[in-house]
Amino acid sequence: MASRSIAQNPDIRFLGRLLGDVIRQEGGEALFRRTEYIRSTSVDRARGIADADAIDPGLDALSLEETLAFTRGFMLFSMLANLAEDRQGVAAESGADVAHAVSRLEQQGIGRDRVMALLDHALVVPVLTAHPTEVRRKSVIDHRNLIAQLMALRDTGATETPDGDLVEEAIARQIALLWRTRPLRRERLYVVDEIETALAYMRDSLLPALPALYTRWERALNARPPSFVRLGNWIGGDRDGNPNVLADSLRHVLARSAETVLGHYLRELHALGAELSISTELGPADEAVEALAVASHDESPARADEPYRRAITGIYARTAATYQAIVGRAPPRPAATVAERYQSPQALRADLVALARGLARGGGAAAGGGALGRLIRAVETFGFHLATLDLRQNADVHQRVVAELLKVAGVEADYLALDEAGRVALLRRELAGPRPLSFPGAEYSEETRSELDIIHAAAEAHRTYGRAAITVYLISKAESVSDMLEVHILLREAGLYRPGEGAAIMAVPLFETIGDLENAPAVMREWFGLPEVAKAARATGWQEVMVGYSDSNKDGGYLTSVWSLHQAGRALAPVFEEAGVRMQLFHGRGGAVGRGGGSSFAAILAQPPGTVNGRIRITEQGEVIAAKYGTRESAAANLEAMASATLLASLEPPALSPADQARFAEAMDAISGTAFTAYRDLVYGTEGFRTFFRQMTPLPEIAGLKIGSRPASRTKSDRIEDLRAIPWVFSWAQARVMLPGWYGVGQALKSFGDMALLREMVEAWPFLQATLANLEMVLAKSDMGLAKLYAGLVEDQEMAGAIFGRIRDAWHVTHDSLLSVTRQTRLLEKNPVLENSILLRLPYIEPLNHLQIALLRRHRAGEDNPHIREGIELSINAIATALRNSG
User: Fold this and answer.
1) Which neighbouring-strand residues pair with 392?
2) What phi and psi values does residue 127 have, to the nearest 5 degrees?
3) How many C-beta atoms lie closer than 10 Å to residue 399's C-beta?
């Protein structure tokens, strides 16, 4: 193997040197030397300097205690390397900012007036979820973020922190604290823990980042756009398969969110009061400002000539009263005067705007947006709720609950026995009147009581925080119109659905499997065919549809999944156009490519023409949240990428002519069909495959990790169909197979036959470019040599050899076909930055895989040393950290 040069980021060298110093100081010279030997021999093998079998890597000489320390060291290096790359914008794409997007559109004759017209009805929302692929403790992430802040300070040339510490020593101290911080959770996460983690990202990164971005976008647009980028959240509202999410969870997340955002406003108002020291002795005050000053009842002689400060005293007092009313206790910094609460965010914004207009009338540099402008933007964007909370539940639950409500109310004894037409007719009759089905004193099952409690808590949330607090109710496993009408029945129980007015919370179907995606246009056409639904949808102006990447991938493989999602979007567009309703697609993406991961910028640009139109929501899950939103800088970069991609996808002319679109779609139908058959034949048609998968990968051990509040499987079955998509993808990544991200593609490309057409498609089609780019990344992170060692864990080696042989051969076919189609001599040849990033990590992952395999053998053989279990869990943590988007 030829040696390949790996250019190392200077920040990685710097942080790696400090980590080495810490290992020497904290673990001793012997551990440092042994770790360094393993590292250097692994690097030499990866670079082709030494034959893979020529050097003893030294892993067998490690004691269990040394194994734990070594694994921690490699995990920390990978985490620091991730930090360094994020800081240097390794993942940033060219043009992934609004200013560049506006310029690019102008070059195509699309002026800023059209951009602003789009933004008038636009909505771009990253939605944080608690899906358990973040293996690191919050304490570890906090230290990592402090290092990022210190590195940013170092970039300025500073040698000291504001507190007088030497910057380099402060960084080394944080690394030492990381070394001494237990990386694994000892207790399983609860919903409240997941809520607090998400709120930390919102408070520390997203809250300050978004208003600052809007300031930048105003300059790029030469106009003030509406607040079209907002925040979404599932944590505390997503009940699908999580019995721990109850009405109290809903109340808790909303109250804590309000506490977070109102606390932010109070801090900003306090700082603003210090800043706006304008005196009437040096110029008259605006009439509206004077009115606010008088209404504040601030009688301090020191502020008698400072109407802005007195006005802010009153605004602060009213915001503090709002905090008291919603949160239930006084804020940390009490108000100087007593005042009535704000009844809505709009009322608070109106007072702030009055201050801004007063400054504008005064003219000069003081009239700029500044801190006041950012606070106004924050109130517009975050309201009193911070992030819109989604409700989600499985359609099967709704069917059972509605059936019980109908039976107890004496309306229908056996709703579940009705066919679809009968259900729709019955539900429509019920929804024509305002009478709820539930009544006091009735006896219901625990499931029904819990679902009713959730709905009543949602109604309470609307009264407390406003309708923006909860806007959609997602229906997992949605297959029919009755699935959506059942949600309306439940909403009516709490007054959230009124005949003639529609629902205060939108019922949103989630189409997940390949069959569901194919059926989605028919379901939505039938939905809009109901006159009462069409009327309400036109009044609202839009209807959301969610499409799921994870289950469609597990169902049909990577290529068929992404193609089915693409085709569903294209097929839905005319249905919405006929109904006169804007379509809003909600993309349920995960971190791994097998769950829709990869570049959000490229993914949005690859959407079918006419399916974005300024409105898109995307889930952000697990370890991706820390990577994208761990710091204010990374949060700003990723929000900017989403916004700019949305502008380009909405306004740029289609990349393909209708004729080319038709030709390429026909080809993709054939390719997808072949890939689907190959994938289904392996995963669902091969005898013993589920046993092979569970024994080859660390799935049983992953299921025991304390990384989420919900179980790994939907049922107690060991069928792959019942396994959640996250452990399915995560397990294959640990074993370095990455099967959900590529299997079936190679066979499909090879059998297609028309290489010239494939190459034309890759050159011209953003969809296929993004699809193959993600696949290429997955292939580069997989390793069939290491995967073969994992296959050695399977008890039936004859079966393992046969199944793994098919996987290995398919990997090589996929590898060779991809290189041929993309005209490359090696993977990532055309993406040297990503190639270098992955090559840098591989030498640090390989020893971890070897150690994990050895520990799995001992664990499964019955050894009960607790260090073995800890070592397995630590290796899972370290490999996931090094691979990054593996869940």
Assistant:
1) 238, 474
2) -115, 115
3) 17
Residues near 212 by Cβ (< 8 Å), separated by ≥ 6? Answer: 374, 636
Output the pTM of the full model. 0.90
Q: How confident is the prediction for the chain on average, in pLDDT? A: 90
Is the domain spanning 251-382 CATH 1.10.220.10? The answer is no
Cβ atoms of 200 and 138 within 8 Å: the answer is yes
Catalytic status, residue 131: yes
Residue of 264, 554, 566, 788 marked active site: 554
CB 614 within 8 A of CB 121: yes
CA 345 vs CA 319, 322, 383, 436, 466: distances in Å: 10, 10, 5, 31, 9
Structure tokens at 853: 């395999």
Confirm whether 850 is a catalytic residue. no
User: What confidence tens digit (pLDDT) does each residue in 86-138 have?
Assistant: 776 544 444 589 999 999 999 999 999 999 999 999 999 999 987 544 566 77
Measured CA to CA, the distance from residue 178 to residue 19 in angstroms comes to: 10
- Write out the residue limits of the CATH 1.20.1440.90 domain(s) in the chain: 251-382
Q: Is residue 626 very low, low, confident or very high in pLDDT (cuts 50, 70, 90)?
A: confident
For residues 44 and 751, what is the distance between their CA atoms, to the nearest angstrom? 38
CB within 8 Å of 345: residues ≥ 6 apart: 379, 380, 383, 384, 466
Query: Given 131, 143, 264, 788, which residue is catalytic?
Result: 131
Q: In angstroms, what CA-CA distances link 6 with 41, 833, 836?
A: 15, 10, 6
Distance CA 248, CA 482 (A): 28
Residue 851: name the closest of 873, 825, 828 by CA. 873
For residue 427, CA distances in Å to 222, 413, 504, 520, 855 come to: 50, 14, 18, 21, 56
Q: If you ran DSSP here, which 8-state letter would residue 128 be given?
A: E
| CA 593 – CA 598 distance, rounded (Å) | 6
